[in-house]
Design brief:
It is built from one helix and nine strands, in the order H-E-E-E-E-E-E-E-E-E. The chain is globular, with a radius of gyration of 23 Å. The protein is mainly beta. The protein has an eight-stranded antiparallel β-barrel. It has a single domain, classed as Lipocalin, CATH 2.40.128.
Length: about 150
């Protein structure tokens, strides 16, 4: 075998090794997604419109892979599936709740230990008096409720 053919063989073997190592080795520090990561947890939060102080409270419930805001019950919103991803000590979640009469709310949040921070964007359903409702963005922060 000539030196050039030998060099090509070495490069080919290195490329195969790197490819196989990449396939079979998990990425260090990668996020882990799991179903029900926040299940059986309930958080009490204070919330307000973006850029303003808190002016109301809410209770956020995670149960059986679903998310619910009790403060939104009065507007016809129910529970909805949520997805959660854990990276280190931080859990990030996303949920989209729906109301036949009041539109949709997109929720995104993080949980670190007992603390939660959320952002919600409520897009009201169009009505005859408001054909293009402007989305309302709110923020919220709170803590895990201890079981009684």
């Amino acid at each position: 075998m000539s030196p050039i053919q030998n060099q090509k063989t070495v490069y080919l073997l290195i490329m195969v090794f790197v490819l196989l190592a990449g396939i079979f080795t998990p990425v260090m520090g990668a996020a882990e997604t799991a179903t029900g990561l926040l299940d059986e947890q309930t958080f009490f939060i204070e919330q307000g419109e973006k850029g303003k102080e808190a002016n109301e409270t809410d209770t956020l419930i995670f149960k059986d892979g679903r998310f619910r805001s009790t403060g939104c019950d009065q507007y016809g919103f129910g529970d909805a599936p949520y997805t959660a991803t854990q990276e280190g000590n931080t859990i990030r979640f996303v949920a989209d709740t729906f109301s036949e009469k009041s539109g949709t709310i997109h929720w995104e949040g993080t949980v670190e230990g007992k603390n939660i921070a959320v952002v919600q964007i409520w897009t009201d359903k169009p009505h005859w008096y408001k054909r293009n409702p402007k989305p309302l963005e709110k923020w919220g922060k709170g803590e895990l409720q201890q079981p009684e």
